[in-house]
Amino acid sequence: MKLANWFKGIRRPSPQVSPPIELAPSDTVILPLLGHYGLPCESVVEAGDEVKAGQVIGQGKSVPMELIADSGQALESHQESTPAMLRSSISGKVTAIKQIYDSAGNKVDAMVIQGNGQADQPEPTGLSAYAGAAEICATPLDELLAGLDITGVGLSNTMGPKHYVTMNGIKSVRGIDTLIVRGVDYDPPVAPNAAALTSDISHIQAGIAALAHITSAKNVIIVAPTGQDSAELQDMAEANGWKLKAVCGGHYPFATDNLLIHSLTCKEVPYPDGDPRDLGVVIESVQTAVEVGKALLSGKPQLTTLVSVTGAVSKPGTFRVCLGTPISAVLEAAGGISDNTGKVIIGGPLKGYAHFDMESPITREIDGLYVQAKGDMENYSSHPCIHCGACANACPVNLIPGELSKLCEFGQYELAAENDLFQCTECGVCAYVCPAKRPMVQLLRLGKAELMAKEVD
Amino acid sequence: MSQLLTVSASPHILGKRTVSSLYMDWVIAMIPAVAAAVYYFHAAALINILLAVAATVGFEWAICTVFKTPNRLNDLHAVVMGLMLGLLMPAGAPFWIPIMGGLFVSGLAKAIFGGLGAYPMNPVLIAWACLSISWPTHMNAFWETSLAAKGALQAAQTPLMLLKTSPEALKDMSLMALWCGYVPGAVGATSTWAILLGGIYLLIRRVISWHIPLGVIMGTLILSLFAASLDSNVAKLGWDTLTLTAFHLGAGGLMLGAFFLAPEHVSSPVTCKGMLIYGLGVGALSVIIRQWGANTEGVYFAILFMSLTTPLLDRLRPKVLGKAGD
Q: A273: which of A103, A425, B106, B130 is 20 to 30 A away, CA to CA?
């Protein structure tokens, strides 16, 4: 932790962490027909068909991908990803393929599967189960990657295409030296990563070993919230030559990827278009590591994800749910929402999106739900900026948000852009500390949108 | 489950601090200074402070009513400005001086520039400057304090006036008396210890940042060390170099300036570098004006001057994190 960062950001209470609760498969799951990186895929079953848990129900196109390997290590056989495979998360009957709202509020095609009530184990995929971390590390890279593709674990931070995929840039070999496994949560009290840290230690170990093997990173840093760096984790880190760092779990927004990389390695990831991989750093959440570990140790596709539900619910907690479970079913498990509920927020209270459709399915992108009671909803005001400097002192990327908000309020967008408007990460700290309750983030977003619209014209 | 939910953009939670609670902290921080003022100068101080607050709030309300603008009296800004103005009044000022001061604060210095958040200089200091230029005799009607007086409070000269006019008189004054507020002066500016108490409260509550007070103190320290080697009075009084520093830090409301007037939010810079330079400038200019200027009250003019540099100092930004090409 850098000293200068100590006074920046805001202090939120550290989340209450409890081990994840397994949730029985819901009656119906809704699976958006999307493959890797949000590219659409074709359904290979029809309405009325019986499907089994783990059966492939949709197939996407291959995408060119960027592989990370030791310099010089050619991976000819794996220049493109295995076609994305969408698997059913429960056994049952396909009832319909219809348009639904996804978590971002967009309409997408999705397959609705009515469960038959049997908690079937996923079908074997022909993938052999690994015995442990040592065996994983001895496996050739392309075999390991092909296996992971089959199990459907998303490694978008490690393997995803960059924002700017070049025409011929199918593969670029880059030297990765640091792998950061993020066990802290960026938006407390929504804390799926802290809950994932309580998972079976063998899964965590296998997952991190696999990620380190794939990235060929020499330094592995596991970041855990203070108080969660248990002896078990410390032993594991020591045995493997990894580092375990404890950071304050409630210090928002210093658990976001770029800021975590900056405070751990002093490397500055350019924003908004930067990729930590260009600096030799890969950051993955501990959730992903656990998924990878589970997939490799069991040899089975991963059909569940962790969702942390907090806020104005009677039984908050972290749940392991089948992919495609409607949000309403997860909320029901956490005690349900009532007439008094004002907002259901996907993500956390400071960076999340308030959602409207409780029938939207849980996908891997959703890591938490924050329920807000009607009485707790905040109102912004049109009070002028009083130039108190609270936002400038709190801004994690050293902007002067108060000035930017004034410029955007009065239409001086170009001037705002000159003052680094586009470096704003929209973390919401400035709005949180603003005594005048100005809609800071909204004004900055307005500025960005106006400038982007102008650029398109 | 067909309930209508609210959809809005993030962030969905906001902090507890509001403009009213922010200025409530200023009011709380000024309680020790006000109490000390009333204890040292009796009813004269209380009447001046109450009149200043009432006039500032009253004129603000009147201006908002006449010009049909929404009044924001409940944000307590007018109360804070009135209290500060009251603290700058000499005990012997006639009753209409604080009332005129209130008009200057609310009308001339605040409303004309566009209200809270828009004025370029601290309204209290603009009002103080107007008053002391317009009615110098009334604004210099300082009294000795109740602790030093035998019987009724008498008119007296402040230590800073003595430094200009008859430095040998300072020989009898102990520095302890200066820091404890036994000396004549404006009702709120003499009780240095009470001001420090309030200032520490502001720092702990993080209402003001430590940069400006530190800058002011450092600026005063550096320039007064420099002045000590040039000023012949220092040798005459038998003071050593640090005595002059302690004198400048304790006298004439420098602490009031460092903790209450200079860090006033609207007219001071927001970046760390800017705040430090602003503070250093205030401290250095205070000593320069006191030692070599015509006016005795160096701090207030120094703050007014440095406020003008605020837009410039606000351009001293820290390096933005994650900016491509850096």
A: A103
Q: What pLDDT score was predicted for residue A157?
A: 60
Q: Count how many pairs of residues, chain A against chain B, have C-beta atoms within 8 Å.
A: 160
C-alpha Rg value of chain B to the nearest Å: 21
Residues 6+ apart with CB under 8 A from B198: B28, B29, B30, B31, B32, B33, B259, B260
Handedness of CA A143, A144, A149, A155 (dihedral sign): negative
**Contacts made by residues B174-178, CB under 8 angstroms, sequence distance 24+:** B175/B243, B175/B246, B175/B247, B175/B250, B177/B148, B178/B246, B178/B247, B178/B250, B178/B251
Per the listing, tokens 């200091």 go with B125
Cross-chain residue pair B7–A356, CB shorter than 8 Å: yes
For A306, phi then psi, to 5°, come to: -95, 135
CA A390 to chain centre: 30
**Smallest CA–CA distance from A439 into chain B, residue:** B11
Structure tokens at A129: 């189960």
Chain A: closest CA distance from residue B97 (Å): 28
Query: What's A8's DSSP letter?
Result: S
Beta bridge partners, A180, equal A221, A283
In sign, the C-alpha dihedral spanning A419, A422, A424, A428 is positive
Instruction: For residue A246, list its beta bridge partners.
Output: A224
Positions of E strands within B215-321? none
SS3 A92: strand
- The complex scores an ipTM of 0.91
Chain B residues whose CB is inside 8 A of the A393 CB are 209, 270, 272
List CB contacts (< 8 A) between A349 and chain B: 10-13
Angle between helix A286-298 and A141-151 (nearest 10): 100
Looking at beta carbons, which residues of chain A come within 8 Å of B116? 384, 386
Angstrom CA distances, A413 to A169, A297, A416, stand at 35, 53, 5
User: Whole-angstrom distance between the N-terminal and C-terminal Cα of chain A?
Assistant: 43
Coil, strand, or helix at residue B68?
coil
DSSP A320-380: EEETT-BHHHHHHHTT---TTEEEEEES-TTT-EEE--TTPBP-TT--EEEEEEGGG----
Which amino acid, A259?
L
| Phi and psi torsions of A373, nearest 5° | -75, 155
Which tokens sit at A164? 């700017």
State the DSSP string of B105-129.
Answer: IIIIIIITTTSTTT-SS-HHHHHHH
